[in-house]
Design goal:
single chain; Rossmann fold; six-stranded parallel beta sheet
Length: 273
Amino acid sequence: MSNNLLAGKVGIISGALNDKSIAWKVAQKAHEQGARIVLTNAPLAMRMGEIKTLAAEIDAPIIPADATSVEELDKLFTEAQGHFGGKIDFLLHSIGMSANIRKGKSYGDLDYKFFQQTLDVSALSLHKMLAVAEKQDAFNEWGSVVALSYIAAQRAFLDYTDMAQAKAVLESIARSYGQRLGHQRKVRVNTVSQSPTKTTAGTGIAGFNAFYEYAQKMSPLGNAPAESCADYCISLFSDLTRYVTMQNLMHDGGFSTTGISQEMADLMEKAGE
């Protein structure tokens, strides 16, 4: 249902790979709420995914950009503003990749070149995006930036390896740039720490099913689905959250503040019998 929360607003959404992607659902919801959108992704991801289907559905142009390249990001923001005929109101950073995870490297046996790539793609890309936007003065006042994170930025999770550090850096960049852009243009910058979600990227992590089922049993509300995460992002793009900035916002059904659930306690008691 549309409440026109984003009527008149325009923005850039990165990372929509297929209809399982949170970014895909954010784009659909933003369109439903009255926004005009530019979609972007790395050329390789575009070849692997189905972004053209989404672009046709929401009548959005696609501007390819490698988010690790300042030159390509400069082109992205220039062309997006040209398409909209003005500055942008919101930006979704939904970008993450670890070759170490893809290749099954354990935390004690990381390839450090891959590690640097993980940090560049999954975290420094946010800084590069915002630095380019700042230099171009690309945001309207009271704009909003949301980057997707995960609780492994604060806690140790088996098999999440170097992505844990990437998410921690991502959240730190959001705080630092939130302060900077807030002073400059009243632009707010937040991260959303989402439940384990059955996206293409998520299910590629070894042990993901265990992550998912454990969080499901621990969370009073259960794992937050991708559609609900998209709704939350829309609220953060809207004027209803103008004074929320520099926060890591937990969207996890209560997982992050639950010590132990009755369901987990029952399972442990049965295991000990």
